[in-house]
Every structure is written in C-alpha cells, then in structure tokens.
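Throughout our pipeline, every protein is held as a single compact record rather than as scattered files. The record that follows is passed on verbatim for readers who wish to inspect the format.
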Amino acid sequence: MRIGELAAQAGMTRDTIRFYEKVGLVAGRRLHNGYRDFPPETVAWLQYIRTAQALGFSLAEIARTGEKLREAPDTAEALSTLFEEKIQVIDTRIAELTTLRADLAARVGTVCPLRVADRPAEAEVRSDRVPTGVRRPTE
C-alpha cells in the first residue's frame, strides 16, 4: 500500500509516517518508480505506536520493544509484561518526584532556599548574616 493510503487508514499524516520510517519504526520498500510500498500490517503497527505514546512510552522505547512484540508467541502476555515494567518505572519516578517535592517544601520560607539544609533550620533562621545579594525584609 502506498503512503497516502496508509496515512488515511492509520489516521495520521504522510509526514508522520516518513518520520517513523526515518527513525526505523516502520519500513516500506521502494518501488521502481520511487514510491513507498508498505505491507497491510503496518496500519496496525502505526495504531500501536499511537496507543503506546498515549500510554507514556517514548518512540525510543517503542522501537526497542517493537521487534520483541512482533516475535512474541503471545502478544497479550508480552504487552502485559511491558506494561508492568513501565508501571515500575512510573512508580520509581513518582518516588523521586515525592522526594524532590519534600526537599523543595523544606526550603520554602528559609533564609537561603538554595543552601543545602545541612544544619537545623532554627539555627539558620536566627542567623544575623544575610547572604550577599539577598535583601533583608524591612520592618
């Protein structure tokens, strides 16, 4: 099938398909007249790419796992395993973001929010020294 027909069936632009071809996500063969020719199963693969992106997978992740999925004897099982792995990545990122949020919250309202809190906040608040470039509030 030619790229225009593929684009219409997959619901995406020719430019998107050309980009996916350039990065190795889809492959079409060139006909003698220079037109691209794609196998019919490319439509399902393009729909998978769109769905995987909506589920938070990057194009690099999709490319990395695509061959595994195509060769898997049970695609549903392979996808479930892939989704479980993605959930673990997301859980790790949530934990990292939670820690980052707590660190930011601990710095709010301190004398010098950029200073690493290596001593009790009470000692920092009582300090009469104001870092260079920081204005002391007027009373």
In short: Residues 121-127 have pLDDT under 50 and may be disordered. The first strand starts at residue 29 and ends at 30.
